[in-house]
Design brief:
The protein has about 200 residues and is mainly beta. It has a single domain (about 25-200), classed as Beta Barrel (Porin). Helices cover about 10% and strands about 65% of the residues. The chain is built from 1 helix and 9 strands, in the order H-E-E-E-E-E-E-E-E-E. About 25% of the residues are buried.
Length: about 200
């Protein structure tokens, strides 16, 4: 009986303390991205891709305990690249799911610096190529699934009712997105993002 009472007391104390230390929330994020293909080929000349700017955004789900947090997201992201010399743009639209381990450098206070890293998986919705005024559907020539690494840093602002955040991250694609590449041919996604968020 005594052990049971002590057990119930321990559970009650844990239940009272955990909600104060454990933080969880849902939010929205939006910002812009600069995407550029990393392309390799054994057949010269090599093709130089330039940064393709666009919007990025979606939902975020986070939880944290002290210095450590876990963040998952569902984002709409445009990868691709352009070459202004020949008026070419390739636009690859993805639904991306990053899973990030977050280190909260200063867990207390209204301003919290964070760094994080993890990976992402992504599904290609559509791929379009524009050469001058001509537009072509490129979807069938590229892999539907992409994956890679993510690293970034930012600031979180804890207000009375909501949380705000600003962050910069880099997406480093590991998958060759060309469906049937020639020998020595590869094209991988690279993307720099700046995102602003609000959470509850």
């Amino acid at each position: 009986m005594k052990r049971t009472a002590i057990g119930f007391l321990a559970v009650a104390v844990a239940a009272a303390l955990v909600p104060q230390a454990l933080e969880a929330g849902i939010g929205i994020k939006g910002g812009f991205s600069l995407a550029r293909f990393a392309q390799e080929s054994n057949v010269p000349p090599s093709f130089d891709w330039e940064d393709l700017p666009f919007f990025a955004g979606g939902l975020s789900f986070g939880s944290g305990f002290g210095f450590v947090g876990l963040q998952t997201e569902i984002l709409y992201v445009r990868m691709g690249g352009k070459n202004e010399a020949i008026s070419l743009e390739n636009r690859f639209d993805y639904i991306q799911l990053p899973v990030l381990l977050k280190l909260i450098i200063i867990p207390g206070g209204p301003v919290r610096p964070v760094i994080y890293g993890g990976g992402y998986g992504a599904y290609l919705i559509k791929a379009k190529g524009l050469l001058g005024t001509e537009e072509a559907d490129l979807t069938d020539g590229y892999e539907r699934f992409d994956y890679g690494l993510v690293a970034g840093a930012g600031l979180e602002f804890k207000l009375a009712v909501v949380g705000l955040s600003v962050e910069a991250r880099y997406n480093y694609g590991l998958s060759n997105v060309i469906k049937n590449p020639a020998a020595g041919e590869s094209m991988k996604n690279r993307c720099l993002m700046v995102l602003f968020g609000i959470s509850i």
